[in-house]
Amino acid sequence: QKEVEQDPGPLSVPEGAIVSLNCTYSNSAFQYFMWYRQYSRKGPELLMYTYSSGNKEDGRFTAQVDKSSKYISLFIRDSQPSDSATYLCAMKENAGNMLTFGGGTRLMVKP
Amino acid sequence: DAGVTQSPTHLIKTRGQQVTLRCSPKSGHDTVSWYQQALGQGPQFIFQYYEEEERQRGNFPDRFSGHQFPNYSSELNVNALLLGDSALYLCASSRQGEDRGYTFGSGTRLTVV
Question: Which pLDDT does position B100 carry in this prediction?
């Protein structure tokens, strides 16, 4: 079993839809949680960064962390075709320097 | 403000050869990490350098080695290349003491034939 699990998709939605992306993890030592967006042939771009449990909102993006369930989510409101990319969740322990990534979910937003 | 720059962008090597990849961190960043991303998978941590020392290492063999220079730039070296080393190699930079995530470069795509 992988330390961080993420549904690979692809997830196909119409433009304007609300998108929900999720990751589950097994390591209770993870304290920092991130979401990255990766376009084809590009490096990951940081979208959201949260510490411990709770919600964080930034524009059309909302990140949620539920440490009791070891479950994190990213919501995208009013999705746009330009949101079509692979979304990677990543996590880090408090004392560590290493990011542990999920396998990524490929999202396609159709006009 | 330049982000993380990596060179070369693409590289083709023969099995058994050696390769060196280069990374310049984002301005103001002093810590460099390297990741390997196989096709269709998430990045895997190779190692991290800070103050020219390897600070942490992932589950990669000794064929993978690195270096950080006084100007914070870094190199990743891979010896005795295997077909399975074909991947996108990503460099990420950060600033020690700042927990704001890591900034990634666009990567070097290595193909081993």
Answer: 74
